[in-house]
Amino acid sequence: MSIYTIAQASEEVELTPYTLRYYEKEGLLPNVIKDSAGRRKYRDDDLQRIGFIKCLKGTGMSLKQIKEYGDLYEQGKAKFKERNAMLEEHREKILQEIKTQKKYLKMVEAKIQMKI
Amino acid sequence: MSIYTIAQASEEVELTPYTLRYYEKEGLLPNVIKDSAGRRKYRDDDLQRIGFIKCLKGTGMSLKQIKEYGDLYEQGKAKFKERNAMLEEHREKILQEIKTQKKYLKMVEAKIQMKI
DNA sequence: CTAACAGTTAAAGTTAACTCTAAGTCAAGA
DNA sequence: TCTTGACTTAGAGTTAACTTTAACTGTTAG
Prior knowledge:
Two copies of one chain form a homodimer.
Chain A: E1 3-4, H1 6-13, H2 17-25, E2 33-34, E3 40-43, H3 44-58, H4 63-74, H5 80-114
Antiparallel strand pairs in A: 1-3, 2-3
The structure holds a DNA duplex.
């Protein structure tokens, strides 16, 4: 399938229809089209975009920053440098976060081993 | 030093005095004592507890669950099993989260490499 | 033809986790 | 003694990210 209703898209990306509409209202999904009755139609492009939004959000980027990134993305190769700079900075943040998670994992494991 | 004012503890654990009072109000720090003038005095025990709270919180546990854990902790070895079960479950969550972070890291890196 | 259904909008409500304000207390230094 | 500064409390305010409500509309099955 390559055209989805909001219910189908919701199922596909594991976000509620409320959330999808909310993301759109916040400007994160500028390319979702509507049919003659005003109903949203999601295409594969849209689902991929949502997938990347989930990736950025899941690694701690705020919706506000995700929107900034998306806005740069919309401006095409003119803003390629800025856009990639954002991603590279974010990459560092993720690496740091993984380190922190590993440290915390060790703390939790130590506590489990304590047996007191 | 082994006794800290709220300002010193705040500095030590990198949380604002507001947050420390808030955690206490929420029951996460049941053992903080006060001097004759009613001012909080943090001991090393308290700082360690805050350190572990930061660990749990930093790995996605809600303050509500952290309080549950702390409440079990207060009940000593009677609740050892339950307490450790919580930690073991949380350990799995952290492991899963690290996996997810690594997957997302790859996605971001792929996007960086795209050069479009 | 009509009832049920899946969608629409604008706007209000919710939740977690702080963060700040206002009014007050207490101890220490000039 | 007076003032300054670091604390105290209860309670209000903030922010992000949803989540729900109310009122409405267009599509589809009987």
